[in-house]
Amino acid sequence: MPRLITIADAKKRDAQIQLDTPKKGDAVRYVDAKRGAPIHLERLIKTTDRTSFEVLSKQHGEKLGQLLIDGDPEIDMEQVGRRLGHATRVHVGPEGQILYAARVLQVVLAADGTEKSRGDFIDVEATVGEELPPVLWTGRLMPAVDVVRKFVFVRKVQLRHVNGLTFDFLHEMAKSLFDEKKMLLVGAGPKGQAPLIFQTNGTPFRGFLEGRVEGDGYKLVLHLSNLELKRVGEAGAA
Fold first, then answer.
1. Strand, coil or helix: what is 61?
2. CA distance 139 to 88
3. Cα atoms in the 13 Å half-sphere on the side-chain side of 87
């Protein structure tokens, strides 16, 4: 089913419209250089818990270096290279033991990698959705050339009408942005300052709306960014 969200325009009118993700191009096809036969990927066993560096270090201590020179104690000849097949991911503890019950924690790290805090993980609810308040027109217009130099776009979605009335609604928004030759910063929340989060615990994004008009047609593209580009001096000052 198509995904619906609510969006408001510059006149503070809102309507439900459809979100579309652009179709991906054809997948790259790899073939053998000699025969042209298709290549497929296999998951192979690389190592086992009995031959890990931590286990070997505890068993042999300072002698491990010489053992690695003389032979291959880190390779399990019976297991390495076998096809993995179906496997289930598990969590393991510091000693390599399987954890059957894990506590999810939220760890905050500083810019230098040191731990600032940790605590129980708290679900972050979505801010964009069919039953949620509309994505607001903030009025903050920015030249496209400035936006692409300041933010990294990681995803984009197209806003589409669901009937004749929403066609006129979105066409007017697209024409306004196209005539201005600028992109609009949009956001969630009462003042449009909250990030766009499309699902529970999803990535928070800044949204930049781009409008294009050609004849009677229009295109509204919502560009999403979660990374701002800064000069080295600016990053250090922050």
1. helix
2. 49
3. 10
3-state percent helix, strand, coil for the chain, nearest multiple of 5: 20, 35, 45
Q: Which fold has domain 3-25+125-237?
A: Ku70; Chain: A; Domain 2 (2.40.290)
In DSSP notation, 127-187 reads: S-STTSPPBEEEEEEEEHHHHHHHEEEEEEEEEE-SSHHHHHHHHHHHHHHHHHTEEEEEE
Instruction: List, in sequence order, every residue forming a beta bridge with 213; answer none if it has no partner.
Output: 218
Q: Whole-angstrom Cα distance, residue 87 to residue 43? A: 10
Give 220's strand partners.
159, 211
pLDDT digits (tens, 9 = 90+) for 165-222: 999 999 999 999 999 999 999 999 888 889 999 999 899 999 999 999 998 899 999 9
Place of tokens 């003389």: 70
Domain ranges of the chain: 3-25+125-237
**What are the tens digits of pLDDT across the range 139-157?**
999 998 899 899 999 999 9
